[in-house]
Design brief:
Blueprint (H helix, E strand, L loop, with lengths): L1 H11 L4 H17 L8 H7 L2 H11 L9 H17 L3 E13 L7 E5 L5 E4 L22 E2 L4 E5 L1 E3 L5 H9 L8 E5 L5 H10 L4 E5 L2 H4 L22 E2 L34 E4 L1 H9 L31 E6 L2 E14 L4 E11 L7 H25 L5 E8 L7 H9 L1 H7 E6 L9 E6 L1 H13 L5 H5 L5 H8 L20 H8 L3 E7 L14 H8 L4 H19 L7 H25 L5 H24 L5 H14 L34 H10 L8 H24 L6
Parallel strand pairs: 4-9, 6-7, 7-8, 8-10, 13-14, 13-15, 15-17
Antiparallel strand pairs: 1-12, 2-3, 2-11, 5-11, 12-14, 16-17
Helix pairs in contact: 1-2, 2-21, 3-18, 4-10, 5-10, 10-18, 11-16, 13-15, 19-20, 20-23, 22-23
Bound molecules: 2-acetamido-2-deoxy-beta-D-glucopyranose (8 copies) and zinc ion.
Length: about 725
């Protein structure tokens, strides 16, 4: 009890931080030496985590659709809370936020229709997906097909096929004399975020968007071999999904959607789509394609696997025919819930290692996201069991987060991190995300901030291989299969750990908090084809993708031991030298590509280079001198080096955001705005260089000025990160 109030005080006064840190450290250690044992908990966790228990969790979670903001949001949030408490967590709470969500009108189908010359409907899309495979009692609770935040209303026009709907696709259309202004575009899922497709379509003048998944992308073994015979997408399977291109509650940008919040009016949020958008099945897309005249055949690379020529339009085959989109989807204020569970640390109660996964799904959500939720509940149970039976507790506090409304735009996690941003930026050590725990059964894949990459690799060496064929081939661990399937080109024998982008709940921890994060799961060459459809259900998980739930078990084990490693280590296992090597490699690549151009335009990599060099030196010194000699018996010294490590990632956050993108602020790892072109490292710089193209300073002084300014910010922040590792302010 006493500890907790001191910890709170600490947060408020950074000047006395170290002094109290020392006092509290000594006090707690001595207190707890009597109470808790230290042990290597990793083998115990690996033993304890059960595939059957994950399967049972998943069965419950997938028994009903659980869309954010519906009755099931609360019921499942409470169910997860109760599992947490039953497993022995110290606390678990449901945390509500009132946010802008979006739903089709109850009992009304959104439709796309072919209208003949007499204004009669010749064909109308079904608007919902037929049940296939094992019957599900709660099929009636599944929402009609829709895209969240679609514009509402009716539009009529002719259709233009716009391939993946990227800018390059519209440029190609323009080259071929097709102007989409005033028309409806038919766009394939894939290649870029669906919300960006709508932004681009509207920019080029389209009045509505029809989205479909081509069998070439998601039914590669033919249209007859689909769910439930295989994992491939059936012809009436429809991918739902959000169209909102910014993350967090649309009405409370930058701030939490709590009771006192000031809310924008819906029409003030410029990032909400205005045109109607409707997703349909590929059987239906085929009928629309057949209604088009083929005076203008599509480029060959635009062809898919439908049984009809792909034509550009807009001319219909039959004169006077049109297409009508009728969308009833409306935005509504609804309540969504996070569930937050807490396991208090024995020594550093005010340092948090967080694990998270979202809970909401578009339908039954077996793989996305319930495979992760079912696994997290089992991780918590195993930890609780070991706590009870071995008299163990982690050194640091572990926090378990089950997020609401991720699917609408990372809303639950953004609102929570926005609410607790200041405290989290002092106390959050790392955030470990698992969204889709199992999206395939071939190999682990993972991405991480450089400081955590090694840790992920080391964890994978401890987890037994879940795949019998792989074991027969001599690959006994998750690591062995991962290294084989995703080899690191620069490090023979090692798997490549990806870099963090956006797209799941780690984003607010990276951007709002500035904490190192990771995201991983089992997958195949590509992720499962029935993503965001009705067919992402228990049958898919238990009979097709992971019979025996052994891949789920492997991911849960990875998650538990990686978290336990960070939570329990005396000195944090963060690999800062790899961060330096990574920055150096990235800068080398930038220099190779742009150095000459910069020099010709009165800009330079000189200061960027100097800051990376000093970061390299600082991380080397810190690793080889400070960390190598730290006295682990001295709580003040331990706290001091750990604080440096915890804070390091925060330095890469520019509070003003990237150039022209205030909501995107990590100078190294933000996602490029030019989705189709850009690299994801130093996105602010790369985007500006893309924007300026081959224009000189004289031709585009404004952009060149922004380039110089951003280069100076990069050099400054990396230099300060380097300095933070030393003992000196100056
Ligand atoms: C739709 O149009 C086709 C071709 O004109 C015609 O054969 C078919 O009967 C029409 N179907 C309906 C339901 O109007
Ligand atoms: C496309 O059509 C619209 C409306 O007819 C017109 O305003 C616009 O200039 C056209 N764009 C091009 C590039 O021809
Ligand atoms: C696919 O199924 C349809 C209907 O059952 C059948 O007519 C067709 O021959 C099948 N195609 C292939 C390639 O098996
Ligand atoms: C649009 O759909 C609504 C709901 O089904 C229906 O009431 C309305 O008549 C439709 N409008 C048109 C023009 O088809
Ligand atoms: C692995 O997934 C594939 C589908 O990609 C499936 O055919 C196969 O049966 C699965 N294996 C296991 C053990 O579940
Ligand atoms: C950074 O990269 C350059 C060019 O490859 C290399 O010469 C230098 O040694 C690297 N610095 C560090 C600290 O690795
Ligand atoms: C080059 O940039 C610097 C600031 O970065 C500025 O002081 C100088 O005037 C610029 N020179 C030219 C020729 O634009
Ligand atoms: C510069 O870019 C323009 C437009 O992208 C292009 O037409 C031109 O050929 C480029 N010039 C050089 C020297 O690359
Ligand atoms: Zn997900």
């Amino acid at each position: 009890m006493g500890n907790k109030s001191i910890a709170l005080l600490l947060a408020t006064t950074s000047a006395v931080f170290f002094v109290f840190g020392a006092l509290i450290g000594v006090y707690v250690i001595e207190e707890n030496k009597k109470t808790f044992v230290t042990l290597d908990v990793k083998p115990l966790l690996i033993d304890e985590i059960s595939a059957e228990k994950i399967s049972a969790n998943l069965k419950h979670l997938t028994s009903v659709p659980h869309v954010a903001g519906t009755e099931q949001d609360l019921l499942q949030a409470e169910w997860v809370r109760d599992r947490f408490l039953e497993s022995g967590l110290d606390e678990a709470h449901t945390v509500p936020y009132d946010v802008l969500l979006s739903y089709p009108r109850h009992g009304v189908v959104n439709t796309v229709e072919l209208i003949d010359e007499k204004n009669q409907a010749n064909f109308t899309t079904a608007g919902r997906q037929p049940p296939l495979g094992t019957p599900q009692d709660s099929y009636d609770k599944v929402l009609m097909n829709f895209n969240a935040y679609s514009g509402n209303g009716i539009v009529e026009g002719n259709i233009v096929y716009a391939h993946y709907g990227r800018d390059v696709d519209y440029e190609e259309l323009q080259k071929r004399g097709v102007n989409v202004t005033g028309h409806i575009v038919l766009v394939r899922y894939g290649a870029l975020f669906r919300g960006s497709k709508v932004v681009i379509a509207a920019k080029w003048g389209a009045i509505g968007v029809i989205l479909f998944t081509d069998p070439m992308d998601k039914a590669r073994e033919g249209r007859n071999f689909t769910f439930p015979d295989s994992w491939w997408l059936p012809g009436m399977g429809v991918e739902s999904g959000s169209l909102y291109v910014v993350d967090g509650d649309p009405l409370t940008p930058f701030y939490p959607a709590i009771e006192s919040a000031f809310r924008l009016k819906e029409e003030e949020q410029v990032n909400l789509p205005r045109i109607p958008v409707q997703p349909i099945g590929y059987d239906e897309a085929e009928i629309l394609l057949r209604s088009m005249s083929c005076e203008n055949p599509a480029p060959q690379e635009w062809d898919g696997l439908l049984d009809t020529p792909y034509c550009l339009g807009p001319k219909p085959l039959n004169p006077g025919w049109k297409v009508r989109i009728n969308v009833s989807t409306t935005n509504e204020m609804r309540r969504t819930y996070n569930t937050i569970g807490i396991l208090r640390g024995s020594v550093e109660e005010d340092r948090y290692v967080l694990l998270g996964n979202h809970r909401d799904a578009w339908t039954f959500g077996a793989l996305d996201p319930s495979s992760g939720t079912a696994s997290m509940i089992e991780v918590v149970r195993a930890l609780g069991y070991i706590m009870k039976n071995k008299n163990w507790r982690p050194r640091r506090t572990m926090v378990f987060c089950s997020w609401g409304a991720e699917e609408f735009g990372l809303i639950g996690s953004y609102e929570w991190t926005q609410q607790f941003a200041k405290v989290l930026s002092q106390r959050a050590v790392a955030y470990l995300n698992v969204d889709v725990a199992v999206g395939g059964n071939q190999t682990l894949r993972g991405s991480a901030y450089p400081m955590l990459k090694n840790l992920l690799i080391e964890s994978s060496k401890l987890v037994p291989n879940p795949n019998a064929a792989e074991i027969a081939a001599g690959r006994n661990t998750v690591f062995d299969t991962w290294a084989k399937n995703a080899p690191d080109a620069n490090k023979p024998g090692q798997p490549a750990v990806g870099n963090m982008g956006g797209g799941s709940d780690f984003a607010p921890f990276a951007y709002v908090v500035g904490a190192p994060t990771t995201d991983f799961g089992y997958t195949a060459e590509y992720s499962y084809p029935t993503y965001h459809t009705l067919y992402d259900n228990y049958q898919l998980a238990s009979e097709i993708v992971d019979r025996g739930f052994v891949h789920h078990q492997a991911v849960a084990r990875m998650w538990a031991i990686t978290a336990a490693d960070i939570a329990d280590a005396t000195v944090l296992p963060f690999d800062i030298k790899s961060y330096a090597a990574f920055l150096n490699d990235s800068l080398n690549a930038l220099e190779d590509k742009y150095d000459e151009q910069l020099q010709q335009n009165n800009a330079t990599f000189k200061y960027f280079r100097a800051s990376v060099d000093s970061f390299s030196k600082a991380t080397k010194d810190f690793s080889e001198k400070t960390l190598a000699t730290v006295n682990v018996e001295d709580p003040l010294e331990v706290r001091r080096v750990n604080d440096r490590l915890v804070q390091l990632e925060r330095f890469f956050i520019d509070p003003k955001g990237l150039p022209d993108r205030p909501e995107t602020n990590h100078i190294v790892f933000s996602v490029s705005a030019n989705n189709a072109y850009g690299s994801d490292t130093f996105a602010g710089l790369v985007d500006l260089l893309f924007q300026v193209g081959n224009k000189t300073e004289a031709q585009d002084p404004v952009t060149w000025n922004k380039i110089r300014q951003h280069l100076s910010v990069i050099a400054f922040l990396i230099g300060e990160a380097a300095r933070s590792l030393s003992d000196n302010l100056w």
